[in-house]
Amino acid sequence: MFKPKVDISQVVLEILREKYEDKFVENLGYVICVLNVKRSSHGILIPGNPKILSEVEAELLSWYPLDKEVVEAEVADVREFGAFLRIGRIEGLVHISQIIDDQISYDKKGFRIIAKKTKRILEKKSLVRARIISVSYSSPSPSFKLAFTMRQPFLGRIEWIKEDLEKLKK
How far apart are CA 157 and CA 95, in angstroms? Predict the structure, then answer.
């Protein structure tokens, strides 16, 4: 019996990782990682075609972001128009009007947003809690866009939430 020198399961795993990882797939969501592959031991040969066709089962780790879902993220960047939030390798935008229920100004030198009444500051690397308000993707493109709000109670920079909870206890 012929034994290939190449581990075909490993080749299939590499192909699936290249095709699906770090992409948004309509019925699966954002594919974070292809974990494992099970390949059928039987294959089909088609005359004139150099490929061997075989059934494959793959185990994937994916995340399907939903409207109104609350997530924790890191601020990746701050601009005049809002802040980019990062969840793993995924980024989305929280528009300036959705950051805090306060008048705000943008500090160009410090690349940060400052609330006028509360003096709260949002800057790069801040940890925040936000609600997804929009998920959009266009098929067949593997990318998608997320929009967030932090303007609701118990959303925003984690330190702000802790301060608000302390105020409620008093």
Answer: 15
- For residue 98, what is the DSSP state? G
State pTM to two decimals. 0.80
CB 14 within 8 A of CB 33: no
**CATH (residue range 70-169):** 2.40.50.140
What is the spatial distance between Cα 132 and Cα 147, in angstroms, rounded to a whole number?
6
Q: Which residue has the tokens 């309509």?
A: 26
In whole angstroms, how far apart are CA 89 and each of 13, 50, 85, 92, 140? Answer: 21, 37, 10, 10, 20
- The arrangement of strands across the sheet holding 112-115 comes to 104-107, 112-115, 121-123
71-90 pLDDT, tens digit per residue, is 999 999 999 999 999 998 89
- The full set of domain ranges for the chain reads 8-63, 70-169
